[in-house]
Amino acid sequence: MTTAVPSLRSASPLAGMPGEGARPMECAHCGLALGRHWRVQDGPFCCKGCRTVYALIHEQGFERYYDLKRCATAPPAELSPDSLNWLDSLLAEAPMLPGSSMRRLRLDLQGIHCAACIWLLEKLFARHAGAGQLRINPAVGSVDMLWDPSKSDLRDYLHEVESFGYRFGPARKAEPRHSRALLIRIGICAAASMNVMTYSLAYYLGLAPNEASLFDLLGELSLAWAIIALVVGGSPFILSAWRGLRRGIAHLDLPIASGMVLAFAGSTWAYLEHGPRAAYFDTITIFVTLMLVGRWLQERVVERNRNALLASAGIADLFTRRFEAGMPEAIPVSAIEAGDELWIAPGDLVPVASTLLHRAATVSLDWITGEAAAVEVGPGDEVPAGAFNAGSRGFRITAREAFSGSRLTELIRSDLGTVEGGSEGTRRARRRTGGVEAWWNRVASVYVLLVFALAVVGFLVGLEAGVQRAVETSVAILVVTCPCALGLGLPLGRELAHARLRDRGVLLRDDGFLDRVLKVRKVVFDKTGTITRGQLRLTATSTEALTGLEPAHRDVLRRMVARSNHPVSRCVAEALAAAVAVDRGPGGSWQKADAVQEAVAADDLREVTGQGLSWSGDAGEYRFGRPEFVLGRSAETSDSSFPGAVLGLDGRALVTLEFEEDLRPDAASEVEALQDAGLEVYLYSGDTGPKVARIAGELELPRDHVRGDLSPEQKAAAVASLDQDDTLMVGDGLNDSLSFDAAYCKATPAVDRAFLPQKADFYFLGDGIGAVRHAIEMARHLYRVQRGNLLFAAIYNLAAVLLCLAGVVDPVVAAILMPASSVAVVVLTSHRLARRTLRWTS
Description:
Elements: H1 48-59, H2 64-68, H3 87-93, E1 103-110, H4 115-126, E2 131-137, E3 142-147, H5 154-162, E4 167-170, H6 177-204, H7 212-246, H8 253-274, H9 281-307, E5 319-324, E6 327-332, E7 341-344, E8 354-356, E9 361-364, E10 375-377, E11 382-383, E12 388-389, E13 395-399, H10 408-411, H11 424-431, H12 435-462, H13 467-480, H14 484-503, E14 506-508, H15 513-516, E15 522-525, H16 527-531, E16 532-538, H17 540-547, H18 551-562, H19 567-584, E17 606-608, E18 612-617, E19 620-625, H20 627-631, E20 644-649, E21 652-663, H21 667-676, E22 680-684, H22 689-699, E23 706-707, H23 712-722, E24 727-730, H24 737-742, E25 745-748, E26 762-764, H25 770-805, H26 811-832
Parallel strand pairs: 15-22, 15-24, 22-23, 24-25, 25-26
Antiparallel strand pairs: 1-3, 1-4, 2-3, 5-6, 5-7, 7-13, 8-11, 8-13, 9-10, 9-12, 14-26, 16-21, 17-18, 18-19, 19-20, 20-21
Helix pairs in contact: 6-7, 6-9, 7-8, 7-9, 8-9, 8-12, 8-13, 9-14, 9-26, 12-13, 13-25, 13-26, 14-25, 14-26, 18-19, 25-26
C-alpha cells in the first residue's frame, strides 16, 4: 500500500519554494534545509523516511507532533523490517505485578530526539487496549511499559512505533554513570560557590573586623567551603594530571589542576596573612565549578549520542526461529546445529549456510558481497550465511552447519564498540601518538612551565619592594593566568560542535574523532548502501521509453509488476506510478496512483525464478524479464550481465528497459566537494567490477582509486595498505566490518542494525552522504576556534602578567579578572560555533 502525503499549503509542489535570496526551503518533517538535491515529485522532504513518517503522522491524526517539535531534528532512519525474534523470551519472562494481570517490560529505544517524540509514543500506546503505563527515559534511550497481555499483544504497539522510524531492542543500556557523578560534583561545588559568594558579599558591603565573631566566622566558613570545592570538584582534574605525570605525560588537565591548587594556595596565604577580606575563595569555588561544567558537557554529549543508538552485544543480539514439534520457536543463533529447520521472516538474517526448502525466495547479499541486486533462489539452492530475506514472505531453510562454523562469527565479533573500549581498530587508533592530541599535550606542558617561570620572575621582581610585595606579585600571576581556554573553551567548543552535527543528523560516538579526523587525507567509500541506496532505477532513456509505451501495453506491464516482489518489478512499478501521477497533473504530483496497487484478478500470471514474468491475455502472451526468456532464441543478446529487462508480446519486443543503481542524491557533488577540500576519494566494493566502474564514472573518480570484486578480507587488506593513519572508511555492510578495524576513522549510515554503528566513530541519518564532509569541516572549524581561543588566552595572560609585574594587579584584582576571562572565552566560542557558521545542504 502506498501512503499519500497530505497536501502542504498548495496543490503544486513548487508552491512556497523560495525565490532568489529567500530563506531555503526546509523539510516538512524534520525541519532541515533541503539544499539543492531534493526532488520535486517527492515533496518537500529530505529523505524517504521523512516523507513516510510525515504521512503516517497525518493519517493517525497526530499533527500536534509538529506543534511540540520546536526545532529541527535529525531525519528518521529508513529501517529494514524487524520480526522482533528477540522479544519472545522477554515477553515470557516479563514479571507480573502482584494482584494484577499487568506485566512490566523494559526495552531500549532508538530514535528519541525531543519532547514531540515522547508525546507521539505515549499517544500511540494509549490507543491500545490493555495499555497501562509508559515511561520513557530520553537521556538513556529506554522505555518502561505496563500492559495487560490478555487484552492486547505488545508486538502490535512495537510494530506500529517502528513504522514511525523508531527501533526497539533488548534492555542493555545502563544509566550514564560518569556524567551523572560529575553532575553530583557540580551540585556540591555550586552550593559551595553560592555560600562563599554570600559570605564575600558581606565583606564587600563593609563588614569590619570590629565585628569580630561574625567577621572571623564567615572567613572560616569560606575557607571550609573552598576546601570542599577543591576536594570534590578539583579531584577529577588533580588525579588525572597526577596519573599523567607518573607516566611522563603532561596531560591537558595539568594546567587546570595547577591553576586550582595554586589559586587556592594563594587565597589561603592571603587569608592567613591579611585576614578574610584579602581572600578570594569565591573566585576559587566559581572556577572549580566552571571547570566541572565544562568536563560534564564533554562527557554528556558523547553518552547521549551512544545512548541514541541501540546497544549491541554482538552475536548475543542475534535470534532466529527454529521449528520445534512443527512450531517456530525463537532461539539465539549460537544454538543452531546442522540439520535444524529454520524460519526466516521478511527482513531477517540467514545466520548459517543453508538449503532453501519448498518455494523460491528473494534474498539480498549486499551485506556480505556488496552486490546491490537481490538474488532469486529456488528450492534446493544454497542460501549463504549473512543473506537477508528481501521478499515479502518468509521461507524455510535447513542449516548446513552449526553456527560455530558460520562465517558470521568471523565478521560479527564480541569486541564491538563499547563505551569504555571500542573496537580493536578504535583502540589501535587511540594508541597512535602524534598529531593534534600530542600538540595539545605540548601546549599543556609549555603552559604550566611558563606560568611557574613567570611566578618566579614576579617574585624576584617584587623582592625590591619587600617579601610581602614579592609574594603578592607571585600569587597574582598564578591566579590571573587562568587556563579557561583549556578547561572551559575546549569542552564548550566540543559540546557546540556535537550539537551542530547532531542537528544535521551526524552523531559522534567517539569524542576523540574530532581530533583524529584532522589527520584524514583519504576517504574510502563502500558502494552499495553508502554511495548508492542499494536500489535500482530506470535510466533516463528507459524512463522515456516506458512513458511512450502504448497505454494498453503499459497497463498490462503495470498489472504484472504489481504482483511481483522482485526488485526489478518494484522499480518498474514505481516508475509507472510516477508516470501516472504526471498524467494526473500538478494536483496529484506528490501522490502515487492508487491504480498501481490494484490486485490483478488473473490467475495465470507466472513468475519464473531468475527469468521473469509471464501472463496470457486476449492479445497474446506477455513476458517481462531477461531478454532470452522474453524473446527466446531470437534474442540478440543472452549476456547474463545485461543490466535490463524486456517487455515482449508473443516473442516480439515492445520495450527494452535498462537499470542503474540509484545514487544517493548528493553523491556526485559531495565527492567533488571532498576532493576540492584536498581529500583523496576511493571506492572499494564487493560488487562486480563493471558495476563499480559504472558508478565510479558517474563520480568521476580516477581508475586507480576504484576496486571491485573484493571479499571482506581483501577490502580490509586494501584499506590497511592505503592507511597511513589518515584514512576514513565509510560503509554500511557486514562486509565492511574488517575494513573498519583497518581504518584510522570510520563512519556508517547503517543505523538499522547495531553491528557497524557500534564500531563507528560516528553514524549519520538522512538520504545523503553530506554528513561525511560536514563532520570533517566541523572538526577543522572547531580546531580553528580552539586555536583562536588559545591566541586570545595568550594575549590576555601576557597583558595580565605585565600588569602584575608593574604592581597594578594584586591578588584580589587578579581574582576578578580570572572569571572575566572565562566569560570572554564562552562568548567567543559560542559566537564562532553558532548555527549560522555551517549549513547542511545534503
